[in-house]
Amino acid sequence: xxxxxxxAGNYRxxxxxxxxxxNVEQVQELVASSKQIKVLGTRHSFNSIADCTESLLSxxxxxxxxxxxxxxxxxxxxxxxxxxxxxxxxxxxxxxLHNLASLPHITVAGACATATHGSGDRNGNLATVxxxxxxxxxxxxxxxxxxxxxxxxxxxxAVGLGGLGVVTxxxxxxxxxxxxxxxxxxxxxxxxxxxxFTDIFSSGYSVSLFTDWKQANFNQVWLKRNMVHQAxxxxxxxxxxxxxxxxxxxxxxxxxxxxxSEQLGIPGPWHERLPHFRMEFTPSxxxxxxxxxxxxxxxxxxxxxxxxxIREHISPLLYVSEVRTIAEDHLWMSPCYKxxxxxIHFTWKPDWEAVRHVLPLIEQQLAPFKxxxxxxxxxxxxxxxxQSHYEKLPDFQKLxxxxxxxxxxxxxFLTDYVVGN
Length: 421
What we know:
By secondary structure, this protein is of the alpha+beta class. The protein has eleven helices and 20 strands. The two termini are about 30 Å apart.
């Protein structure tokens, strides 16, 4: 298989062939005739969750908007559409999504399948707006999961981890388009979160803290505000001890801000401010590794202090670490299931041998807080520990068996961390 690496270049797929169907009928034929098959989105997962030894299927040709429902405030799209393209369409028609990830380059189906999240105190992860899904199951037939439909199990299917089938169509809730602004502040002391955690993270529609863990502080605060509710293009010169940045910033120290979303309080559309990076540029640092852990919001400051105690092990391998909040949800395999959460993200330098030795140290520090790893990123946590954090896992296992009784969409990752041997 040509081009057999993921986006970051750290993972090589082991499948023997890649299919790029032109329509749903071809998807059905491919799935029905395959022994084992997995779906690739934009290859932004850093582990083996999307891999298998037989066939891979790309939905890059199924990337269109199917329809906009102005009565029910919903949009229906094909599974391979990227957020950047969908967002431009929605904005042109006066609508928005409630939340976006850091990168607009990822596909809707792939992001939802792994509970990719975005940020904001009141913003659930991207899968929380999934109203219905059409999935091609192992036998090639199409099944529909829909909110409000009896026995549809949409709460289980929305974060399907690629195990239920090929998501060919999705209907998402949308909201009216809105304008946003973004300011960046430099050098927020970690200790400020002890007394002011809620004040800091409720100061904007979406708030991200960045640190390189060289000191007990955050190098940057990215404050994104909805201009409907406040004079969001105005900013105080100081933010809980941090100083307002006078020029644009990149989250990774030393990198140019040219590929980052507009800052300095300049108003702009929601889809050009919620992501950290512009659609037209290569995102983030390029070649990198990523890990991320979700902890209960109530334990977040203690968890960050626990990491601060081992920052000398973290900092030399790190590009940057990001901290953000996510609202709780009721999606079975979401790391934010029934839990107001804080995500602690690590963007690592491309040195897996070194990173794989520091991850157990991080996981040990976060173990008292029952940290849940991001499904699409790198972790070394034992499968039993991961499984213990998901009370709906038995129900999800039943759903997997119902949709795929022979394990056509199963791979080593799902066997280890979800299904069990």
